[in-house]
């Protein structure tokens, strides 16, 4: 992501998981305490999705700018992460392993944490969030971009979840997101002219999330 991104391998349920860690400037330069921790999940690995996807990186940059310690990871079979794609099941276990690792190295004070995902990553994270809440350790907030509601059974999410979608998304039609969000009375933030990968709209994505954090 930048010159200070740390990439390394950790142990996962079926082998090594490749992760990338970014620290807020104030923490890296002055040792200041971060606001919290954040985990970012990338789009579908069988369609070229990686932790270096531009939307996943935008989510990471935005959260680093909000003073969170941010960790991304590659799903099974991507980059140096071992294992085979498991249609989102084993990927949940992997993200929980990444979350545990992040808490161990930066969460000694019980810092709040954020889960942010793009496309397939929203499906996986929705169930990770559900499992963490059931375990008594709920996320502070969720950020879903291009929510994969047309192809996957995305779990229900808290009402303060930030849901962002492009009105010209032909990968995940916006109506499917409305259909998922409506029973939850969950607002959807629509970016006009944006397609699934938010080409030339990433600056708007970043601005929307940053402004929503002030609410």
UniProtKB/TrEMBL annotation:
Keyword Hydrolase recorded: yes
Keywords on record: Hydrolase
Highest taxon in the source lineage: Bacteria
An example molecular function term from Gene Ontology annotations: hydrolase activity
InterPro entries on file: AB_hydrolase_fold
PANTHER family given in the database record: AB HYDROLASE-1 DOMAIN-CONTAINING PROTEIN (PTHR42103:SF2), ALPHA/BETA-HYDROLASES SUPERFAMILY PROTEIN (PTHR42103)
Protein name, as recorded: Alpha/beta hydrolase
């Amino acid at each position: 992501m930048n010159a200070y991104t740390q990439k390394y391998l950790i142990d996962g349920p079926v082998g090594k998981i490749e992760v990338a860690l970014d620290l807020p400037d104030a923490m890296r330069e002055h040792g200041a305490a971060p606001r919290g921790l954040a985990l970012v999940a990338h789009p579908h690995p069988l369609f070229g999705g990686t932790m270096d996807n531009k939307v996943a990186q935008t989510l990471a940059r935005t959260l680093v700018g909000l003073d969170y310690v941010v960790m991304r990871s590659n799903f099974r079979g991507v980059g140096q992460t071992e294992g085979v794609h498991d249609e989102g099941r084993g990927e949940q276990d992997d993200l929980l392993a990444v979350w545990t690792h992040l808490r161990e190295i930066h969460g000694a004070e019980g810092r709040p944490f954020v889960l942010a995902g793009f496309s397939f990553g929203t499906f996986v994270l929705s169930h990770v969030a559900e499992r963490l809440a059931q375990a008594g350790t709920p996320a502070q907030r969720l950020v879903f971009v291009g929510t994969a509601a047309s192809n996957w059974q995305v779990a229900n999410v808290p009402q303060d979840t930030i849901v962002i979608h492009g009105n010209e998304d032909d990968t995940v039609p916006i109506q499917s997101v409305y259909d998922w969000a409506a029973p939850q009375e969950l607002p959807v933030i629509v970016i006009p002219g944006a397609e699934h990968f938010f080409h030339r709209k990433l600056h708007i994505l970043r601005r929307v999330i940053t402004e929503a954090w002030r609410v």
